[in-house]
Amino acid sequence: MEIGFIGLGRMGTAMARNLVTAGHTVRAWNRTPTAEPIEGVKMVATPADAFQADAIFTMLSDDAAIREVILVSGVLRTARPTLVHVVTATISVAFADELLATHEAVRLGYVSAPVFGRPEIAEAGQLNIMVAGREEAVATVRPLLEVLARRVWMMGTDPKQANVAKIAGNMMITMAIEAIAEAVVLTSRHGLAPEPFFDLILNTLFAGRSYQTYSEKIMRSDYEAGFRAALGLKDLGLATAAAGTRLPMLEAVHARMAETVSAGFGDKDWSIMADYTLHHAP
How much of the chain exceeds pLDDT 70, in percent? Predict the structure, then answer.
């Protein structure tokens, strides 16, 4: 297939490469010039050029970036008529509704497909992809998603259902990060080192991937950005807006992540919130 791709950060670059490896033609555009060419990916001059394809993926950072590149520019009006647009970013549920309406107004397919996975997982083609959209649109792009994914998870026919699943999942990851940090605060006050405590917890009550990944990062003080704290704060804001009611645990991690970013750690991995709790919080 001819595939457009917009947004060549670490995640987008890995996804575009995997599509090329699978034998697809990829035409890409990035808001800033890429540092070096991506083998097999043809860079195009404008977003409108990238929309001349059978399907297009956008991996942009937030609602505002997508609005500027896709809606304000008017590229939907000049897109290939049979195109299906796949938005893989974490966006608000309200904006997902707006994107669906905008695409349907010009008779283009629209699919929400946010992902769980860090850049190294994207490189391995092992993302978990949540998908929602009209059945015919999803059927068109599902073979492409399967190239990128360990598993494609169907969330429904309304695109925002995939987005709310991703928002809720990210909320739960931040809760896990804060839970790990607070457990270390508690145990270390009484002389218990993190290593035996994590060995116990990860092999009994909390064997899930989030606990395994982030307890290791906390033990190594490894906060190189895989997913930036500033984006984590953005996603917690999306969760707060989508909830429609007061969620006390969400309020707590949202406030803690805001403190972490305000302290100057916004470009670190979002697990830096644990380091803030351990070493910097009042």
Answer: 99
